[in-house]
Amino acid sequence: MISGLQVALKNAIDVIAPPATPLEDFTYHWKQLMNFYVNHLSDRKASIESSGIPRHLDRLLEILLTEEKGEDSPGPCLEYLLQHRLLDLLATLAGAETPPGMRLVCLSFLRKLLGRSKHPLLHHVSVYAPVHRLIALCNGHLASPIEAEEIQFLLTLCFLVCKYPPLTRIVNDASSVHRENSVPKEDTEKIDAQRITYVPARKRNNSNPLFEPLNTQAVMLINPNLFATDSEGKLSHRPERYATDKNTSTQDILDKIPKTTRNTSTRSSGSISLKDVESISESSSPVSQKLPQDPLPVTNQVVSNTNDYGSSSQVPVSMASASYKVENKFQDPTNLRIDSDFASDNNMEYMKEHSKNHTFLEVPPVTENSKCFLVDALISYLNTADNTVRVRACEGIMVLASLDDSAFAHAVSRSDLPTVLSKRLEALYNSIPAHVDPNDVDEVDVTWGLDSPMWTNDNKFPGCRQVAAFFMWLDYCDQLIREAHLEVGEAIAKTITVSFFDKVITPALVDHHVVLITALLTKCLKEISSPLLSTEISHWLVGQHRDPELPNVWTTPILHRLIDNCCTESNDLTLETLKLFEEMIEKRNEHILHCLVLTYLITRGYYDNSAADSAIASWSDEEDEREREKKGTVDLSREQNHSRTLAPTNIHRIINCFLSLVPRQLQTDSDVNNYERYMADWEKQYSTVLTDCALLAWPLEAVTIDDSASSDSRPEADHCSARFYMGPFLTMILDKVSNIPNQRYEINLQLTVVISRLALLPHPYLHEFLLNPLLPLAPGTKSLFACLQRVVKQLVSDVPKTQDYKHILRSTRQRLLENCSQEPVKENILYDSVIITEEFCKELAAIAYVKYHRSM
Amino acid sequence: MSYAYLFKYIIIGDTGVGKSCLLLQFTDKRFQPVHDLTIGVEFGARMITIDGKQIKLQIWDTAGQEAFRSITRSYYRGAAGALLVYDITRRETFNHLTTWLEDARQHSNSNMVIMLIGNKSDLDSRREVRREEGEAFAREHGLVFMETSAKTAANVEEAFINTAKEIYEKIQEGVFDINNEANGIKIGPQHSPTSPGGLAGNGGQGGAQGGGCC
Ligand SMILES: Nc1nc2c(ncn2[C@@H]2O[C@H](COP(=O)(O)OP(=O)(O)OP(=O)(O)O)[C@@H](O)[C@H]2O)c(=O)[nH]1
Ligand SMILES: [Mg+2]
């Protein structure tokens, strides 16, 4: 135990010590640090504060950072640190948490050193091996008071990997370490401590090849071959050979290694002198001797891999092999020369190419799971309770997932990441209380980084916090998919769709909380913006097949579930599901729109060709079209880029149809031309719609596919025999339109919103089907206009039955549209329907005009 | 502490321009001479007063390093204000502004207030970007401009507060929909949000908000 006095004394000595060279200063602090262990061999529970360790580490860091200022090549202190494997020892001490608090101090030291040093460092075995062991100590599954430091350490590694992409494999290849909870045995540690403490501070030896790589760091980074070597030093042609038989060689080697020789794990200590190195080399040599021509790094790796991690209590199994690789390399002057040639070449492009093609050499093949070592560590923090820590883990994962390295991306896509993300989404979904009001869901607007469930004001509505937490997570997943490497993004999007939407949401759509669930689903759809996830969700919603369904043959379970939900007794469910359909249309996702409506309309089955022929005089539009068809200049339309279908010359007649649909006696709005007030709004929205749909490659004009060559000769009956089927969705919608007089106002309102959204789309077939009442329709074809006509007919016959109906209608209008009424009027579905029909007709007129205007 | 409004800011710009120092100066009133580069995104908060109203600022200090750009993109969304910082002693940080601006405009909501900041004004002797150039850039792109020093604290308060004022004015003008938290603005707890109350008076079943006028 160091008494307070002793500490004070020591501090005083530190201060009055004569100025030393940085290296002397460095080794002094290191030895001071080690002295603690020598003096406390029996008592490991002394507090870290009294140990002086943090102070010495701070000084060491300071010296290292000062040293590299202005100097481009690494100085003697850094070399000392690398050569004597100080970090190894620190990692061991951190692992043993001796004294208590050591782990935090070590993580912080390493984080600062790696983050601040201008040298990449991580590619040195004496850095990455201890770093691996520290990563293994960072496990978010185990509650830890130093979570924040752990995650900051991991994030720093992410940063380095991004800054120096070739480090990706080095950091993520866990072959040199395994996650283990067993702490190294005390006695070996004692020896460690003693050895390290009494290592003589050796003078820098320039002839020692150990020092060489420090000057060629750049090369080591981009030319991973430096790690891979064979005794012959024939570097130049090896990569190609590897590339071809990479797949088989590992197995071959595995097969050739006798079980007994597979593991000769050598305990590597913090300080490794050349002599140590040699003995290590020997220990792994049986393998290499057996396969003299085979790539050593691979064999070494295999050796450490096949070691049974689970039962091994010895720590850095492959430390030996790893160091062996490097040492062996350094002892071979030829290799170094070749590599320095690379450097002097300064041909970065070439070297990048070179390293790209053979990056697998950096890290020899290892087992599937360990290829994402750092990712796995970060994943373990995704479910932590501390939001800040979790967000940081999220950041780290995002950075790694977006690395432009397809082999690594492949590994990440097959890691636990997609499942963990999806599982958490499910857990958060399950924690949403069932009593949440579906109407409140849409109000929650959160992003994963800028919000925290903790800040969410739960007073807003009960359950708000849980809803917010769910959508924050969805936002993260969505953003991650957007930013990630394509393969990673696809894997996550698929997993979330299958494991969450299909496995969890699908069955819930018949659940008794289905109203809330539909509202949540609508919000999900609204928030999802990444193309990959949108695509997956769209497939889930409307199926993958693009061909029209046959009537009564249901191939898309979700779509039909939703359509059924629109037709239940429950108004709430109908309303919520219609909102979902609105959102589906608003996504302007090509696939959804296609499967929902367009695939049924593009054959123009609703159109009556024969009628067009006879009644040609009255439809100038049709005339135009016939002209076009005659001339066979369908392409003409392409050039002009303005759709005639959307801008028919008889637009005024069309508008009139809509405006005069509701007879005067039922109209409550004195000014019929009032439809114009809707215009500005639709105008604005239509601009957005046009931009969104510009890339959808929709046809410009609605034309009948010319099968006339045969149709002329065919009997007419035949022609009409295939009855037009508008698909399950439009059928449901038009049924609802017909039912307007009997439906609640909210439902009718939402129904008109859905139809307006559809009508606004610049798709010629959809346009004429919904917005051209003058179109000749094939016999038996329902249309929006016809349905509305029938509605009006019913209203005209029912409403005037009441005496004072005009007055009632006027106050109904006030109640509904002006939101104020002098006298409380009782809700009445019939009167409400009159108002909504009147307004809906005006909206349709406005939309038709807006589209006309923009297509002129 | 209670507040009338909460605004979310982000600080963006090249590495080393002094983003973290600006935040530290604003929140803690101190200066950090060593460049401890930000890894990921750091967070800070402070209360200010505008027009007699308490306003809480939540500020996210992003990493300027290219490696973290994917994260930064996530943070644009849902921010009400952004401080776009360059270093007046390093021209390349000024040259990169266009890229930053494009990124910000593309990923943020259109109403986000952007304040352009030329930092390290204390190092006038090493100046590489003239004040007028900053002003011109700001004018051209419709930004507010200011030169600051995180070291001497010159204009630091003003930079953060003026951005808040700008946002506050936009709220008064009705540009920001304060009920939509996606804008990076929250109403304080005691100002419990008035129920949206319907789109009363805007006539009819306006399609804009997807119905629900009543
Ligand atoms: N003289 C002077 N130095 C400054 C000023 N602001 C920042 N610095 C210095 O500039 C360096 C970088 O400052 P930081 O705030 O860490 O830079 P940053 O923009 O946060 O950088 P990243 O986190 O990497 O994006 C530090 O060494 C600061 O001391 C300033 O106003 N005057
Ligand atoms: Mg910073």
From TrEMBL, chain A:
InterPro entries hit by this protein: FHIP, FHIP_C, FHIP_KELAA_motif
Compositional bias per record (Low complexity), positions renumbered to this chain: 260-273
Stretches for region Disordered: 236-314, 620-642
Domain of life according to the entry: Eukaryota
UniProt signal peptide: none
Polar residues bias (residue ranges): 298-314
Family listed: Belongs to the FHIP family.
Pfam families: DUF5917, KELAA, RAI16-like
PANTHER family (UniProt xref): FHF COMPLEX SUBUNIT HOOK-INTERACTING PROTEIN C-TERMINAL DOMAIN-CONTAINING PROTEIN, RAI16 PROTEIN-RELATED
Start-end of Basic and acidic residues biased regions: 627-642
Protein name: Protein FAM160B1 isoform X1
Ranges of residues in domain FHF complex subunit HOOK-interacting protein C-terminal: 727-818
From TrEMBL, chain B:
Chief place where the protein resides: membrane
One Pfam family here: Ras
Keyword Nucleotide-binding attached: yes
InterPro entries: P-loop_NTPase, Rab_GTPases_membrane_traffic, Small_GTP-bd, Small_GTPase
Keyword terms, alphabetized: ER-Golgi transport, Golgi apparatus, GTP-binding, Lipoprotein, Membrane, Nucleotide-binding, Prenylation, Protein transport, Transport
Any one GO cellular component localisation term in the record: Golgi apparatus
CDD domains per record: Rab2
Biased composition (Gly residues): 198-214
Region (Disordered) location: 190-214
UniProt topology in membrane: Lipid-anchor
Record's subcellular location: Endomembrane system; Golgi apparatus
Assigned protein family: Belongs to the small GTPase superfamily. Rab family.
Protein name (database record): Ras-related protein Rab-2
Upper classification of the organism: Eukaryota, Metazoa, Ecdysozoa, Arthropoda, Hexapoda
Transmembrane regions listed in the UniProt entry: none
